[in-house]
Amino acid sequence: MIVVTRLNGTEKFAVNPDLIERIHASPDTTLVMVGGARHIIAESLAETIRLVTAYRARIIGLAQSADVGDQGQHPYLSIVHPLDDPAR
After folding, report:
1. Short-list 46, 23, 41, CA closest to 33
2. Cα 74 to Cα 51, 61, 66, 68, distances in angstroms
3. Most CB contacts within 10 A, which of 54, 55, 67, 77?
């Protein structure tokens, strides 16, 4: 989630950046969400893009550094031959 500020500057709220469809800056920055909701925010277009980029980088970094435990082994692949006897 990214934290942004309502245009009036009194309230901060979190937005799921995966649900942002478009960001307009005409002149106020408006987030248009996938469901059609619109949020007018105080952050600039460039700052909002920076927040989304930092969020995605953090998620990728966490995924790469996650402790995978036993799942870190590479799978063993081999050829599977069909049975000779179809009655089995």
Report:
1. 23
2. 35, 21, 16, 12
3. 55
